[in-house]
Amino acid sequence: KQEVTQIPAALSVPEGENLVLNCSFTDSAIYNLQWFRQDPGKGLTSLLLIQSSQREQTSGRLNASLDKSSGRSTLYIAASQPGDSATYLCAVSEKKSSGDKLTFGTGTRLAVRP
Amino acid sequence: KAGVTQTPRYLIKTRGQQVTLSCSPISGHRSVSWYQQTPGQGLQFLFEYFSETQRNKGNFPGRFSGRQFSNSRSEMNVSTLELGDSALYLCASSFGQGKGYTFGSGTRLTVV
Questions:
Q1: By CA distance, what is B91's nearest residue in A?
Q2: pLDDT in tens, A2-17
Q3: Most exposed residue of A61, A101, A112, B13, measured as fewest CB within 10 angstroms of its CB?
Q4: Residues A41/A86, Cβ–Cβ less than 8 Å
Q5: C-alpha to C-alpha distances, A54 to A51, A67, B47, nearest whole angstrom
Q6: Which of left, alpha, beta for A52 (phi over 0: left; psi -120 to 50: alpha)?
């Protein structure tokens, strides 16, 4: 059974810092890994999608890497801003005999202090 | 282009009642999945539909059911509501297997 773990569970940093969020998964039979952002009481906003054959993806100040063999991914946020405050979730898309599903980590709650 | 639309946004129901939630996927997306989010259990997979067929189902009791229509819109139904069903229910759509998901804003269900 796929298990996804995110470390740390919570993080508080001053504005301007660069930071790294970690995600690990137990089964490497995945199609891809997706990073999401969730604001309180809201739905999920997709940040980055990394296919299993890729090593990294970048979007603006965000960079995500994937090491499928070791079951790890990191989300790097450069020059953090108060607007980055949210919960960040990683999810893996598992290869199944039929259908598709995402298995989520428990998230990292980020607070960026002005 | 329009995103994933979920209706209603909020619902308050009484124990024992049933509820139906609706999800309209992004145009062209044929896969629709449902997830339950609670503070204690996090995000848990309910089921996935593709071309009106349920392809995958999570570990939820039979009170939770769903369906998908020919236009890819999906509904999920929860019968005999329990207090523990209070949660944010999220719908996600995708072009297909391994293509990445787009989520809706969710339906907040409160059972009293």
A1: A43
A2: 999 999 999 999 999 9
A3: A61
A4: no
A5: 5, 9, 28
A6: alpha
The H or E element spanning position B85 is none
**d(Cα B62, Cα A18) in Å, to the nearest integer?**
46
Nearest Cα residue in chain A from B40: A106
pLDDT digits (tens, 9 = 90+) for B60-88: 999 999 999 999 999 999 999 999 999 99
Q: Contact A42/B103, CB-based, under 8 Å?
A: no
What is the DSSP annotation of A24-49? EES---EEEEEEEEE-TTS-EEEEEE
CB contact under 8 A, A103 and B45: yes
Locate A11 and state its tokens: 């993080």
- The pair of structure tokens assigned to A36 is 């999401």
A62 at B interface, C-beta within 8 A: no
The counts of H helices and E strands in chain A are 0, 11
Residue with tokens 């819109």: B73
